[in-house]
Amino acid sequence: MIWRKTKNYFFITILTLSGIAVLIPLILIIIYVIKMGFSSLNWQFITHLPRPVGESGGGMAHAIVGTLFLVGLGGIFSIPLGIMLGTYLSEFKKDKMAKFLRHTIDLLFKYAQGNELEEHCKRLSDAIEKVKPLALKDDWMSELRMNAYLDEIKTRKELGA
């Protein structure tokens, strides 16, 4: 028992020191960039258009407007969809489509975290197989698309991607 606590404290100390060793240069770099770049930050830099290469001055108006446009457009599509999906999932907890959507959301979340994709592809393909009769309803074109999707998942599994 004492040996485990000693090892635990030792490794916590090592990890803490390693974290500090990584954070110190990062903080110093951020301070340097802010200190050197703060003098260039003014309204002209924010509101004016970029100038051609080689000319001094210029601004970032296009980059700022483009960023705001992309964030706004993403919000217009994702916020209502997220609210509707959350409402649907909370109202129809036992529904087959709800289970399929939960598996899909779980897959996207785990993929975004960088976890192994193979296990989640298997769960998604299992969910697709369960929902397939509900989703297809004798539509041969939908069946072709669903089979192509399942073949893609199978190929990814085989390639290990």
Highlighted features:
161 residues, mainly alpha, 6 helices
TL;DR?
It is built from six helices and no strands. The chain has helices spanning 2-37, 43-47, 61-91, 96-113, 117-136, 140-159.
Count, helices: 6
CA-atom Rg in angstroms = 26 Å
Biggest sheet record: none
Q: Which residues sit in consecutive blocks of at least 5 with pLDDT less than 50?
A: none
Terminal Cα span: 42 Å
What does this protein look like?
The chain has helices spanning 2-37, 43-47, 61-91, 96-113, 117-136, 140-159. The relative contact order is 0.05. It has 161 residues and is mostly helical.
Topology:
Blueprint: H1 2-37, H2 43-47, H3 61-91, H4 96-113, H5 117-136, H6 140-159
